[in-house]
Design goal:
Layout: E1 7-10, H1 17-23, E2 27-30, E3 37-43, H2 48-52, E4 55-59, E5 62-66, E6 74-77, H3 93-102, E7 108-123, E8 129-140, E9 148-155, H4 160-172, E10 176-177, H5 182-189, H6 211-235, H7 240-258, H8 265-281, H9 283-293, H10 295-301, H11 307-332, H12 336-349, H13 363-387, H14 391-410, H15 417-452, H16 462-493, H17 496-506
Antiparallel strand pairs: 1-9, 1-10, 2-7, 3-4, 3-7, 4-5, 5-6, 7-8, 8-9
Helix pairs in contact: 6-7, 6-12, 7-8, 7-14, 9-11, 11-16, 13-14, 13-16, 13-17, 14-15, 15-16
Length: about 525
């Protein structure tokens, strides 16, 4: 595709550059068009490259990454067509730059098309070249999609008048200057919306919206995350489809539990059971994903001579993951999952029931009360833990903090963005500490049980058992360190300035809400 130092123009539909040059009475020489080349623009499902202003394409077995306008493209050979799983991208100029950005996500096709290039030279009276043009004829691989034509204008030193005259002719004949985001136009033409998916909550609520209506509005947006990600779980392209599916399920469960008395109790109880089932269904698969994603870090924790000894553990986990994935996919393709989604969708689109105690309460009033109560609960629990450290209560505090995080995200649109960003940032620091403590505890327990209960068909060797034991020792040391960090992190989170902001934003005038 054209480089960033070229002037680019989109031609009007059904118009070629030759037609414009003829109409404007330019003299030119046109080379025969090249062969049509299949090309695919790539990004992760959640548009991580687009968010950075980067683009990647695959053409003729070459992966090319475009970063900043002044940087040369990074290229490497990738013979097989996309999608490219992150773990399958071999080391190279493009992959080395991509991996820290895409992390565990795969590069997927977002705009497949066929491109034909035609080179044209604009000539003066002496038949000297004054401007070079390349017409890119782009045919998106999407039914009933019109052909696009992008013209790259490359000036020749010493002929500025010719460049200006040609630029003027192009605009007079309907050509539009392409912006720096011209690839976005191509992506839209291929039926996608650049940046069109994110797992973040972006629902806009209004303060006086009835709480039941606002909650349904919120839950509809969360449901879309379940529906969008579910089909990709079976394809097993990357682990984040399952992760985002689970996040949407957890958000649904949190909303049903934390936004109280807005729906009838019987409906809430039934849907809690349904979404609890979906959460538990995917627990084992997600745990195995986490362990396998951490395989490199596990190896780094061990001396090099123990690396071969730990490989049987990963082989065992991969075999377990294959079985767990099959179970999840079979259940999602069964009867219960679509029935749950169908009932949930029907409930969310039905008229609100005004009888629950908080159904018609302004959502801002309910949001303030729920957030303030949850924050006070965290402060009380944390202060107790500062005096009486306890592993079980640290785990409980993690769950309470997660509920507050959900509430802040659910209702962020109701409060000043700057204040909400600050509070969420402070809470995230606390959550990271509590989450790391939980992860270390869970992994230590998992490894201990795995070492004791070896695979019956392939018992652990002494070397593998020792390697697993060494990892347990590392995690135990990490647990002590993370636990020691809690006091300083919580003290900062519960500082008077932070408490004052919570009180200012959320303390209700009356605390008599159900």
């Amino acid at each position: 595709m054209p480089d960033s130092h070229t002037s680019l123009f989109w031609l009007p539909a059904d118009t070629t550059i030759a037609q414009i040059l003829h109409a404007a009475e330019f003299s030119f020489a046109e080379q025969p068009p090249g062969a049509a080349t299949p090309t695919t623009l790539l990004d992760t499902f959640d548009w991580r490259l687009h968010a950075r202003g980067w683009h990647a394409e695959w053409r003729n077995g070459t992966l090319t990454l475009f970063t900043t306008p002044d940087a040369l493209p990074k290229r490497q050979s990738v013979p097989t067509p996309p999608p490219f799983r992150f773990e399958e991208l071999s080391t190279g100029d493009a992959a080395d730059a991509l991996k820290p950005v895409i992390k565990m996500r795969a590069l997927m096709p977002v705009a497949p098309f066929r491109e034909t290039r035609t080179e044209i030279r604009v000539l003066d009276d002496l038949q000297k070249t004054t401007v070079r043009l390349i017409e890119h004829t782009i045919e998106p691989e999407l039914p009933d999609t019109p052909t696009l034509r992008l013209v790259a204008l490359r000036p020749i030193r010493g002929y500025p008048k010719a460049t200006r005259a040609l630029t003027r002719a192009l605009t007079e004949h309907g050509a539009e200057k392409a912006t720096a985001h011209w690839r976005d136009d191509l992506i839209r033409a291929c039926g996608k919306t650049p940046g069109g998916y994110s797992n973040k909550i972006t629902v806009q609520l209004t303060p006086n919206m009835p709480a039941a209506e606002a909650t349904k509005h919120l839950l509809k947006a969360i449901l879309s995350g379940i529906i969008i990600n579910q089909p990709y779980i079976a394809q097993d392209i990357d682990t984040e489809f399952l992760h985002d599916f689970r996040v949407s399920v957890r958000r649904t469960r949190a909303a049903l539990s934390q936004i109280k008395a807005v729906f009838p109790d019987d409906d809430v109880a039934a849907f809690k059971r349904d979404f609890s089932f979906l959460g538990k269904l995917t627990n084992t698969l997600r745990d195995l994903d986490v362990y396998l994603l951490a395989a490199d870090s596990y190896r780094e924790m061990l001396p090099p001579h123990m690396h071969p000894a730990i490989e049987p553990l990963f082989n065992h986990l991969r075999a377990q993951r294959t079985d767990a994935l099959a179970t999840v996919v079979a259940t999602l393709n069964g009867e219960r999952y679509p029935q749950i989604i169908e009932r949930w969708d029907a409930f969310l689109n039905a008229p609100i029931d005004p009888t629950p105690a908080n159904a018609l309460l302004p959502i801002e009033t309910l949001a303030k009360t729920r957030i303030h109560r949850q924050y006070r609960k965290i402060v009380k629990m944390g202060n107790h833990l500062l005096k009486h450290p306890n592993d079980a209560e640290l785990h409980e505090l993690r769950l309470v903090a997660k509920k507050l995080r959900y509430l802040l995200e659910f209702f962020a649109s109701l409060f000043p963005p700057k204040d909400m960003k600050r509070l969420i940032k402070q809470l995230k620091i606390l959550q990271d500490n509590l989450g790391e403590f939980n992860d270390v505890c869970v992994q230590e327990e998992f490894l201990f049980n795995t070492a004791l209960h070896h695979p019956p068909k392939a018992p652990w060797s002494a070397e593998t058992t020792l390697a697993i034991g060494a990892l347990i020792g590392v995690f135990d040391a990490q647990k002590t360190r993370v636990k020691a960090d809690f006091a300083a992190i919580f003290t900062k989170f519960s500082a008077p300035k932070n408490q004052a902001l919570f009180k200012k934003l959320f303390a209700p005038s009356k605390d008599g809400i159900a």
